[in-house]
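Before we proceed, please read the two lines closing this message. Let me know whether the structure tokens fit the sequence:

…
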Amino acid sequence: IQTCSFVIYSILEYYIVEYYLYSQIYNNMDKSIHNNSYKAVMNLLRNKRIERSITQEKMAELLEISQATLSKIETCERRLDIIELRQFCRVLNIPFVDFITEIQYL
């Protein structure tokens, strides 16, 4: 028998994420990893890691990915999806909603 765990989001968290995603779609933003907004998000994420004195090697270990994959994510060679972003926030001990709120002003 397999068990599943479900994450319960607060109403506020749901609306913040919904607002952010809607604004991205509404503004018809480029989906390229070369988009300046995407690069700004990746720079912020990398800076959060560096502020916490976490090396790429340690971060990769905590995320259970290779250091090469992490490097590609941070240099925008590989796109990070929202599920992975949530995991990054968890590892960095950043509330996901706070990070989403911060990036909406980039």
